[in-house]
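User: Let's play a game. I give you a shape written as tokens, and you guess the letters that built it. Ready? Here's round one.
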């Protein structure tokens, strides 16, 4: 694991952050978890990156900013300095800004973050209400999720995207981190609920976003890779989806 540089000025850090020649290490557990969109961002960015995993998490945990993963390490090959960034949404917005997936202006950026946040929340609620529920409450929590939480997300996002004439994008005519978050979350939501709420017939506008992302050649190549499949396998084994 690389060690983040200390004692460099924020001005130097900001200069380093601008370069697309840097080398990234993204530290997370060896399954998809909350990372399908973030890993896909690096996979389609064209950047030099590796996905790393903790060897002994108990020992490594206190070395991370908040005791949790993911953490992104970004090294400037010229100076050898390494930047460290934690918190999923901060990392996704940072890479989104750097690679042009946050719209074309301040308002588009705000809209993209709004849709992205809503979709991240529907997945986080699954983790907090169902995955982490005590065994005896799991069935009841699953029902709450499927009766209330998920349908609300599906209805609101389908309505919003219908308003965009099903063009496969949340904002403008361009791919953004909001599109990617929805596309990667759909895989999980369909595993969880089958076609009860989400299908090409019931939610064509949401699936237009899904299909637009799936058609991106670099994204398709990433999903077909042995690395992606290994994360998928462990995810299914540990969490059932
Ligand atoms: N607020 C953090 C939460 C991340 C989080 O919950 N990470 C979990 C894995 S999905 C973790 O690190 N768990 C191990 C631990 O807390 O020791 C973020 O958005 O990045």
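Assistant: Ready! My guess for every position:
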């Amino acid at each position: 694991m690389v060690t983040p540089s200390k004692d460099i000025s924020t001005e130097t850090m900001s200069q380093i952050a601008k370069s697309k020649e840097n080398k990234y290490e993204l530290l997370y557990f060896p399954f998809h978890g909350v990372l399908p969109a973030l890993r896909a961002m690096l996979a389609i960015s064209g950047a030099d990156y590796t996905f790393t995993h903790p060897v002994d998490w108990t020992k490594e945990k206190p070395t991370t900013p908040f005791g949790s993963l993911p953490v992104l390490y970004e090294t400037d090959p010229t100076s050898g300095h390494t930047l460290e960034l934690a918190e999923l949404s901060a990392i996704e917005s940072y890479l989104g800004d750097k690679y042009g997936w946050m719209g074309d202006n301040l308002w588009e950026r705000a809209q993209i973050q709004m849709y992205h946040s809503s979709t991240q929340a529907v997945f986080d609620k699954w983790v907090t209400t169902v995955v982490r529920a005590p065994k005896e409450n799991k069935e009841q929590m699953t029902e709450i999720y499927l009766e209330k939480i998920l349908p609300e997300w599906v209805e609101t996002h389908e309505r919003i995207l219908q308003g965009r004439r099903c063009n496969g994008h949340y904002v403008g005519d361009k791919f953004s981190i909001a599109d990617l978050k929805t596309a990667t979350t759909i895989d999980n939501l369909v595993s969880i609920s089958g076609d009860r709420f989400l299908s090409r017939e019931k939610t064509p506008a949401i699936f237009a976003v899904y299909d637009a992302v799936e058609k991106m050649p670099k994204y398709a190549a990433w999903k077909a890779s042995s690395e992606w499949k290994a994360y998928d396998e462990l995810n299914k084994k540990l969490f059932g989806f």
